[in-house]
Amino acid sequence: VAQKVVDVPTRPGVTQRFLYIAPPAPKAAVILFAGGDGGLQIGDNGNIEGLKGNFLVRTRQRFADQGLAVAVVDAPSDRQRHPFLSGYRQTAEHAADVKVVIAWLREQLKVPVWLVGTSRGTQSAAYIATQLVSGGGPDGIVLTSTMLTDPRSRPVPNMPLETLKIPVLVVHHEEDGCRHCLYSDIPRLMEKLAGLPRKQLVTFKGGINVGDPCEARAYHGFNGLETEVVGTIAAWITAQP
């Protein structure tokens, strides 16, 4: 399925760019949030300059192969230089930008729209969902390799997740070596989700662990487990009523 670049106007003078892949008759749509600084630097031709190896960036076609429409979001047009999304993920402006992408997908496809984040991208997905509970928000969220502690900004368990009324899937590697995403800290996140009508924790083991434990080719990025992880996420999304 061909991918294309889409720019939607958001705040005054600002556009939000994303890479869009739409299979025939998608069952749902997913907005993918990379980790790190979130600066994908998507070119007009669809080439991605930054974070190419990120788990959600490198598996975008796998989501489409599972029958999901895909929008891989970049930093907005006014954040196209370092530090990109760093220090921006938990702002009203970020929520406003993504709210427009959600609306665009709903208008185009008439299907449920989910937010899927990995690592620092989980801070985007969780924050935006909690900010849009009164309308215009996602139909569900998926948190992979969640930021469970963070000395620089608010980690996901510290957000008002108890206000959500949508399904939440948590996906984590039991041997994640990133100090901010340790599996031993998962119970605090799940306790915060306890009152939600639909939530689940899915854990993975094995795969390939290479390099920095907080980077995409370590267990943190589900290296070697891409097929299983994406398949699990897609199945869970499409099973929701």
Concise account of the structure shown:
This protein has six helices and eight strands.
| Major beta sheet, strand line-up | 1-2-4-3-5-6-7-8
Strand content: 15-25%
**Contiguous uncertain segments of 5+ residues:** none
Mean pLDDT across residues: 97
Major sheet details: 8 strands, mixed
Assembly level: single chain
Counting helices, strands and paired strands, the structural category is: alpha/beta
**Overall geometry:** globular
- What is the first-to-last residue Cα distance? 27 Å
Helix content: 10-25%
Rg over alpha carbons: 16 Å
Strand count? 8
Helical stretch count? 6
What's the SSE pattern? EEEHHEHEHEEHEH
Give your account of this protein's structure.
It is a single chain. The two termini are about 25 Å apart. The mean pLDDT is about 95. Strands 1-2-4-3-5-6-7-8 form an eight-stranded mixed beta sheet, with helices on both faces. Helix 3 (about 90-110) packs across helix 4 (about 120-130). It has about 240 residues and is an alpha/beta fold. It has helices at about 55-60, 60-65, 90-110, 120-130, 185-190, 225-240, and strands spanning about 5-10, 15-20, 30-35, 70-75, 115-120, 140-145, 170-175, 200-205.
Question: How is the secondary structure organized here?
Answer:
Layout: E1 3-9, E2 15-21, E3 28-33, H1 55-58, H2 60-65, E4 68-73, H3 92-109, E5 113-118, H4 121-131, E6 140-144, E7 168-173, H5 186-192, E8 199-204, H6 226-239
Parallel strand pairs: 3-4, 3-5, 5-6, 6-7, 7-8
Antiparallel strand pairs: 1-2, 2-4
Helix pairs in contact: 3-4
